[in-house]
Fold:
Amino acid sequence: MDPMAEIKATFFQECEEQLAELESGLLAMEGGDTESETVNAVFRAVHSVKGGAGAFGLDDLVHFAHIFETTLDEVRSNRLAASNEVVKALLRSADVLADLVRAARDGGGVDQARCDACAAELSAFTGIEDAADGDDGMGEIDFQPMQMAPLDLDLDAAEAPPEAAAPEPAAWSLRFKPRPELYAKANETVLLLRELARLGEVEVELDASDLPLLPHLDPEGAYLSWNVSVRGDATEADLREVFEFVDADCELDVQAIGADGEPMELPNSELDIAALISMAQSASEAPAEAAANLDAPLVDPDPPEPGPGRAELAVVDIAPPEPAAADSAAAPPANAANARGEAKNAPPAAAAGATIRVDLDRVDRLIDLVGELVINQAMLAQRVNEAGLARASNVAGGLDELEQLTREIQDSVMAIRAQPVKSVFQRMPRLVRELANITGKQVRLITEGEGTEVDKTVIERLTDPLTHMLRNAIDHGLETPEKRLAAGKNPEGSVKLSAAHRSGRIVIEVADDGGGINRERVKQIAIDKGLIAAEAVLTDEEIDNLIFLPGFSTASAISDISGRGVGMDVVKRSIQDLGGRITITSRPGLGSTFSMSLPLTLAVLDGMVVTAGQQTLVAPLTSIIETLQPKRDDVHGLGGGARVISIRGSYVPLVDVGLSLGYRAEPLDSEQGVALLIEGEGGSRAVLLVDAIQGQRQVVIKSLEANYRRVPGIAAATILGDGRVALILDIDALVAASRTAEAPRLLQAG
Amino acid sequence: MSKTILTVDDSRTMRDMLRLALVDAGFNVVQAEDGVHGLEVLAGETPDVIVTDINMPRMDGYGFIEGVRADARCRAIPILVLTTESSAEKKMRARDAGATGWIVKPFNPEKLVEAIRRVAA
Structure:
């Protein structure tokens, strides 16, 4: 990869981090955080984006970031109060900045009107005109500071062609007298002279007349000055540029020499540099003070001590006393102690979260290998068992330890892929703001448990469903402020997004305090759309779950927000694809809660290993509620081969796994088998009838789709300890099949 | 012997760009992520030139420069400041803190190497 392209990729990656930082900082400010470090961090984030964008010539981005930064600088320096209004505008600007970053990264345009409006809003706060930058919109970057300070030599301007008639100087004569500050800032006369020598032929003459006698010599003083003549076609600006870094710390006279060897007056060009310089000097440093420095070299009243002799000094004509060489005599650096103390107080760099960046492929390869290791360990355990070794034998003991270790390795490796859900949650405040604007509703987003960790893949695939659920909650869940007031509620609705670990899974909830699901309306719509029979008698829970049916949408006209071609059925499907479940609880007038329960990882699964029709299968343990031994009296045939089982008074469909998957032609006698009561999506239950239970085991999931093809009723495969492949049951598909009487045989149907 | 440059910048992008430009120009590059880190690196390294950003967490560029200038061993090291603006005020502030010179961002590698050449013995 081209190194610049690589750096650009890093830049965009970093931009994302900065944007996240920016948003969380602004949100903290919105919540009343007035710490200066928060504002500084926000400022730095924008500043960083701008700096990088400049390097890649992303002008639109630079321009906007510059305006943004200007406003933040005002806030940072307490010239602009971080009022609610200001912070809200800053948040909107952060969104625009994010759009610009993404537009720069992925191509495509941005909402120019929105950018401009936002930029204008920011400029209005600061009242600084340069931010608005006139009428030409975003076209131009304005890097030039508004107040063109005298010191800021604009070399391009200085190089403006002189009057045509002006005589060319034959040479330049410079007188250069450094002040001690010049050396204190690690500038070197010799380097400046070297630079001058690059411009033309130079003659250097040292003026050591100010050099005091040794007893009066301040080792850090500056006593030497130089007269230099430069021949060649260098312009005055070229010469001045050499002294760009030091012009405030030295006396510099530049004199043009005519062909006759006499000083000549150059016609005043547009920029009178000499005047500017003198103004700058008088402004920046009182000349009197400078003179005092020069006139009073007796800073060190100590008796003479052996030091660099005068003769030596004269020899090293263009190497003046170097500050560093004199550190023994240097004033004890009181500042140094301060600075060190500061450094000590600050935490060491490592504590700032030492991280390394690793290619995801490498992690996945590691996870694969650990998966193999787990399988291999299981196989080994089985072999040892088969060999009939005593449980107390050394081999068995070692094997136990091995098992322990492999499990720990596996957990640790999985933890590498685990990430806090914060990365997804962080995107939501923006969505909520936009939705609130569009719907005219007042919404407060509360997030909880952002630090909850879950596998990276789960996180990546969580964004879309979560986005849609939030849309749904705000668009359909929350009422308008008027309705809320009428109902005696706070006009501002709240949506709570929370994540928590619960028994080996992560549970993510989207809860609104809106009106709850209007069940009558939901049922009517389902009837109108032919999704359910008109006379169907449904429990509240069943009605709530209707909204997950494909083709269901409660908005009578497809709204701009929720109606983006995604229904709750798609949300449910994507959650299920992640091995998760989604449930609703809704209370009229009080709001609804959508709860998603997801596995922490997609790589391993706790499963119950069962036998059906001589085949070994795995049922995900999380779906199993209980196991039971069915009694013949409890099982009732319904005709068409369908059976139900009565469990504590309720009838549950019985799924003969062997028959469903086509392992056997005849149904298994219910008394011969074992029943697993399972709960599928949305709480629908079924009983799986299998021949026998072998045990519980953690299995490594191997994709069947990637390695073979999709098989209905089967979610994935795994390799067992004996090296054989076992299929993992797709519980939801089996339950769904049990509800549609006409397709009891999945494999044949598929 | 090639010169060693210490770069201090909190932005990974900038660090990468500085490293690329400087390594291409034949310099040894040592990097730090902020002022505090920069001073820590200086405890074990004596670079020929330091290039530092101003806006950084924990310790900004001004604080860092003051720290370097207050250290007898390091105070003669030329320090170039990276600044996004050519504003005189910012330059003056950097110079008052003890910076040797500055580089205006966005810089190109030639400008960077040129500025280093101008201050490096």
Summary: Chain A has five domains: 3-132, 155-299+311-326, 360-419, 421-599, 604-749. Chain A has a mean pLDDT of 74.
